[in-house]
Design a protein that fits this description.
8-stranded parallel beta sheet; 6% helix; disordered N terminus; mainly beta; 2 helices
Length: 372
Amino acid sequence: MPPRPRPRRTARLASVAALALGLAALAAAPSGAASPSGAASPSGAASSGAVAAGAPVTAATVKIVGNGTARSCTPTALAKAVRSGGTIRFRCGPTKVAISLDRTLYTCNTTTCRHPWEDPSARVVAAVVIDGGDKVILSGAGKRGIFYANTCEESLGWLDAHCDTQTTPHVTFKNIVLKNGNATKGPARFDSVGGGGGGGAIAMRGGRLTVQDAQLRDNRCMTRHSDAGGGAIRVVGQRATARIVRSTFERNRCANGGAISSLQAPLLVRGSTLVENTATGSGASSGQGGNGGAIYFDGTAQDVTVESSTLQRNVAPEGGPGVFYVSNDRTGTLTITGSTVTRNTGASFWTGSTRSIFFLGKAFVRSGSTIT
């Protein structure tokens, strides 16, 4: 008989509740009430539903980094292009190039990174697509996270008081390698995405994320923390489903969610491979983490789907070396279909006979899958 999960070692509500209460208070704030960081908004701005003037920046806006040589593809040029959105492509020469970042890339919510009621020229950044064309490696050099976005970050420009419901910017990484990102500490000058932080390669609060035909390897974040996570990816408070498609995660590590961590954000992993990722904490959520070797989820009604994917040789000393899923109010569903979730190790508690999975929620739906 598998051991029963220890009550205090399942995911706790504290960080989720705090995040939800903070966002609810912001959404309900009347004119002139406190802004996301506590500063007062201009009269009428917080509740007016104001949007930036002019046409939004979409994926149709194309920017080119580089002039045909590897040397021209600098971190400075890339950071400038990413900040205000559009589709970023690279002209770095005929061979694959590695760009070692000297700063964390970020995308603002408006083109000027200012609130639209303060800057009428600001336009909404609807999308940013970073397309490596299968020739670009972005490296955090083991010193910094690779990318950061936060719809409730004041210095990135609020659109209105309802930053918690915002589905822009839609951030897409495709045909690219993201490696050696380090989110042990959050990016300088910025707030955290919440819940303790994380996201060695990609850290996002709000907006929407798509990762397609990408490789994420050897990224990390804090070694021990009760809730923080996402050695490669951390998504927080998203309304639109984060989509991970035909991508590979290898040797990423963090306190929870060695590869991917989601806090109140729906998630789809399709046609992807997650191998040798590690949750490095211990003591679970009442201690210092250790849940979710490959995938970690903590939230409420948000669903997580793993489809046509392989999760193998991932490690978590506590729950869910393959997938750790907790819906705190038991309204969310975990679905695993057409996938292989085997040879994941280290669990001290699990669900049923599947040591790879720890699940608390409305329904655990599995079909056409091998799960051990």
